[in-house]
Amino acid sequence: MRHKTISRFASLIFLVPALAMAGLKPGSVVIYTDGDVEKLVEQNQEWSLWEDQRNRRYKRSYLPYFPVLEYRRFKEAPSGYDQFVPDISAVELKPFSSRESVKFSLTRKDLIKGTRSRLWRCSYAGQSSYRLSKQDLVTQDYSCTRYVMDKLHTQKFREKLVVSYSPTLNLVVKQVKTNRRGKETHVAVKRILTPERATAKRIARTVYKLHTSR
Prior knowledge:
By secondary structure, this protein is mainly β. The protein has a single domain, classed as YmcC-like fold. It has helices at residues 3-6, 200-212; strands at 14-15, 29-32, 37-43, 47-52, 57-61, 70-73, 79-84, 101-110, 114-132, 135-149, 155-166, 171-179, 184-194. The chain is globular, with a radius of gyration of 18 Å. The two termini are 13 Å apart. Residues 1-22 form the signal peptide. Keywords: Signal.
């Protein structure tokens, strides 16, 4: 990642210990192990809106395992998608409800390609922990599988997501994605920065170290 793509966040963020925050405030920035940088733009009890270093925006549900609600690209021709279910409360898992597993059909409305449905199966996988800034965060873990039904009504695997969610930060801190070929992609939170103070040098140095340490 080039330094100039992240320097625009410089006046907005400040590195602090993870447990010093009760959730994240708008303007907070998260740096991931793959070098991506995302800023929290807006949030409420139903969703949070994030913007990355490429000006792409992601609206995410309060349910940490639920697929992205809305995705938009801004520098090119209008593109993106919306994803929804008739009643999101019907797909709540622990600790949001008493359910431990759920199946649902997700409607994906692409601004260019049109509308189609996606089948998901999600389950609650219990608690674990994630170490961030020398502190251990308790996480709620979930496993979700997307599949399709063929003409013989047999399920065919498409992708799997395993996420670890920190209630303290109100943030997914780790995700493992497996595609239909079995290839895994691991992404986790590396640094959290708040809106108060920071320098472009510190942010650029953090991302640079991530790249050189791979």
